Structures are given as C-alpha cells and as structure tokens.
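Hey, can you fold this one?
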Amino acid sequence: MLEYVLLDLDMQLFQLGFFYNKNERGETMTFLVLMAGLFLLIYMKEPFSKKMYGYVYLAFYLMVLALYIINTTFVNLISSKLLLIITVIVISPLFISFLKSSNESR
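Sure. Predicted structure:
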C-alpha cells in the first residue's frame, strides 16, 4: 500500500513540473546537498583550523558545483547518482566540523 502512495506522490510531483523526467530526482537531491553545504560554508566563520584547508575545500566545492551545472545544463558527463555521491563526500568534512563546533559551544 505504501508503495502505491509513494508512486502516486512521485507522479503528482512529475505532473506539477518538479521533475521533467524520472532520472532528475538525483539531480534535485544533489542541488539540495550543494545548497546546504553553501549555507554551512557561509554560516561558519572559520570552518577549518588551517587556512590552506579552507582554500583546498573551497576549490573542491567550486569544482563540484561547476560539474553539477555543466552536467545538468549542457552535457551529461557523469551519472546523477555518481554526482550525488561526490557531492556528499565533498560536503561531509564541512558538516562534521559544524557538528564539532556546535558540540563545543554547549
């Protein structure tokens, strides 16, 4: 029964224009993870203890963001699932440092 409800919800979102095709769900999730990473990057004043780590992280984040834009707009270079995995790997150090800083402030 739950499977039918989820399929019906997917079809409603598809009809409303949230997904142009069924493969675009991974791209939407990638976008949300990238925007959460951008929010964390702006929210935390100094996310990493050394300045060089911050620059390297920023370079990787911008590279993944550029890859996402190219992949969704122009040419599919890699699959959306692989792009989501790369995005989660890039965002995870920032999320871990956010959790450490919020735990220390308690």
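DSSP finds four helices and no strands in the chain. Let me know if you want another pass with a different chain boundary.
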